[in-house]
Write a structure and sequence with these properties.
The chain is α/β, with parallel strands linked by helices. The chain is built from 14 helices and 21 strands. The termini are far apart.
Length: about 450
C-alpha cells in the first residue's frame, strides 16, 4: 500500500493533473521539476511540495510505501531518476498511471496530433455542465474550472490521449475521437507510417464508438467500435456544421447535422472556425454517450476554452492579442487561417518560438510555409525542452524560407523592447516553450494602448 506518491517532472501538464488527483484522494504528494512555473506555484498553493533542484535526498525514504511517477521527457541522467532505480522504488510512467486510473471506469478519450486538448476539455465541460459529471485528465488548463483535473463520483473519466511516447496505448476507451494523424514526434516514430500505425492500434482498443475526423485512414478492420465521422463542414460526415454565422467579435453560431437530426443555433463560446470543428467532435462524443442535445448546445456556448488555445487576452476593434500553443506546422496553419477569417482586413503579426531541435529540423519547410501567411513574423530562437542542440539546426532554417511581407529574427530577450515600439493590430504568440512567460507582460503593454 502506497502512502507517498512522488512525481519526477511534476510541472508537466499531464503529470500535474495526476498529482492533483492523488492529492484529492488523500495521498502525500510531492515532486521535482526543473523550473518554477505558474502551474508548479498552483500545485504548491494546493499543498503539494515541489522543489527545483536535482535532490535525491528530498525523495520520501520509505521504498515500500512510495510510488514514483515519471515522464519520459525527463533525461536518464537525472540523479533523482538514477537514485529511485538503484534503490528499488516502484517506478511507473505517467501514461501507465493514467491507464491504471481509468481501468474499471468508463473512459471517453480524445486523441490526435492536434485539437485534442480543446476537444477533451470541452467534452469534460459538457458532461459537467449537463449534470452527468466526470473526472477528467486534461492537457491544458480549463478556463471554466481553472484546472487541468476534475474529480467526480461518477464512474466516467475524460482523458486526453497523448501520442507522445505511445502513451495513449495505455487507454482502453468506450468512446474515443481521433482529430488528426499528422507526422509528429518523429524522434519517437521515425516516419508518418509509424505514427498512423500507432493511431490504428489505439483505435483497436476502443470498444463502443470511434469518432473519426472525416478522411482519416482508419477503417472498420482496425477497430471493434462503431465508426462515425465528423467534419467542420463536409456534408459527407455523420456530424458536421451548416448555416455558419460569424458574430462581430469572432464567435460563430451554427447548426449541427447529426445522425438523429439537426441541432440548431449552437453558439460557440470560443473563437474561430477551428473551434467550430472541435465543438462538432466534442458534441459527437457526448451525443454518442447519451447526453441530451439541448445540454450539449448550452454547454458549447458557455465553454471558455483552454488556456493557451486561441486564448484571447485583449480584444477590441482596433487592438487584439491572442496566445496559442501551436507548435506544429499544421496547427499553425489552422490557427492562422482561423484568425484571418475572424479578423478580415486587419494586420496579423505573429511571434513564434520553435519547440525542439528535432521538430524544427523535421518540419522547417512546413513551418516556413505556414508562417508565410501572416503579415509580419517575429521569429525567436528554438526552445530546447528535453533536447541538446543539433549542429546546423537553428531558427534560421525556418526564417530563410518565410515569404511574409515583413519578418525579423530576434532573441527572446529582445521581444518586449521590439513590441513596445511596434504598431500592432492583431498580435498572436505561438509556441510550446517558455513563450508563455511573455503573456502577462504583453497583455499589460497592450492594455495601456487601448
Amino acid at each position: 500500500m502506497y502512502n507517498d506518491i512522488y512525481f519526477i517532472g511534476i510541472g508537466g501538464i499531464g503529470m500535474s493533473a495526476i498529482a492533483r488527483y492523488y492529492k484529492r484522494k488523500g495521498y502525500a504528494v510531492a515532486g521535482y521539476d526543473r523550473t518554477p512555473s505558474d502551474l508548479t506555484h498552483e500545485l504548491e498553493a494546493e499543498g503539494i511540495s515541489v522543489h527545483y533542484e536535482d535532490r535525491p535526498d528530498l525523495i520520501p525514504t520509505d521504498v515500500e510505501t512510495t510510488l514514483v511517477v515519471y515522464t519520459p521527457a525527463i533525461p536518464d541522467t537525472l540523479e533523482e531518476l538514477r537514485f529511485v532505480r538503484e534503490r528499488g522504488y516502484r517506478i511507473i510512467k505517467r501514461s501507465r498511471m493514467l491507464g491504471e486510473i481509468t481501468q474499471g471506469q468508463r473512459c471517453l478519450a480524445v486523441a490526435g496530433t492536434h485539437g485534442k486538448t480543446t476537444t477533451s476539455t470541452l467534452v469534460a465541460h459538457i458532461l459537467t455542465e449537463s449534470g452527468a459529471g466526470c473526472s477528467a485528465f486534461l492537457g491544458g488548463i480549463s478556463k471554466n474550472y481553472d484546472t487541468n483535473m476534475l474529480v467526480s463520483p461518477t464512474p466516467t473519466v475524460v482523458a486526453e490521449a497523448d501520442e507522445y511516447d505511445r502513451s495513449f496505448l495505455q487507454l482502453h476507451p468506450a468512446i474515443a475521437a481521433i482529430t488528426a494523424m499528422d507526422a509528429d514526434h518523429l524522434d519517437i516514430y521515425g516516419d508518418l507510417a509509424h505514427v498512423q500505425e500507432a493511431f490504428r492500434t489505439f483505435a483497436s482498443q476502443v470498444s463502443e464508438v470511434l469518432i473519426l475526423k472525416y478522411g482519416l485512414p482508419v477503417s472498420s478492420e482496425d477497430t471493434p467500435a462503431r465508426i462515425l465521422s465528423y467534419s467542420f463542414d463536409d456534408v459527407r460526415a455523420d456530424f458536421h456544421a451548416e448555416n455558419l454565422r460569424l458574430g462581430p467579435l469572432g464567435h460563430f453560431t451554427y447548426d449541427l447535422v447529426y445522425p438523429e437530426g439537426v441541432l440548431k443555433d449552437i453558439f460557440v463560446g470560443t473563437l474561430g472556425w477551428v473551434n467550430v470543428e472541435n465543438s462538432v467532435a466534442a458534441a459527437a462524443i457526448c451525443l454518442s454517450d447519451g447526453i441530451a442535445p439541448e445540454a450539449v448546445r448550452h454547454a458549447i456556448g458557455t465553454y471558455q476554452g483552454a488556456r493557451r488555445r486561441l486564448d484571447v487576452h485583449v480584444n477590441t476593434p482596433s487592438l487584439t492579442y491572442i496566445d496559442d500553443y501551436a507548435h506544429h506546422p499544421q496547427e499553425l496553419a489552422t490557427a492562422i487561417s482561423s484568425l484571418k477569417s475572424i479578423f478580415p482586413g486587419r494586420t496579423l503579426t505573429a511571434v513564434f518560438q520553435p519547440h525542439l531541435y528535432t521538430r524544427t529540423r523535421d518540419f522547417a519547410p512546413g513551418f516556413a510555409e505556414a508562417l508565410s501567411a501572416v503579415d509580419k513574423l517575429i521569429l525567436l530562437g528554438i526552445y530546447p525542452a528535453r533536447e541538446e542542440p543539433i549542429p546546423g539546426v537553428t531558427s534560421e532554417i525556418i526564417f530563410k524560407d518565410v515569404t511574409a511581407p515583413e519578418k525579423i529574427l530576434i532573441d527572446k530577450s529582445e521581444l518586449m523592447a521590439l513590441l513596445e515600439k511596434e504598431p500592432l493590430d492583431v498580435l498572436v504568440t505561438f509556441g510550446a516553450g517558455d513563450i508563455d512567460r511573455f503573456i502577462q507582460p504583453i497583455t499589460e503593454l497592450l492594455e495601456k494602448r487601448i
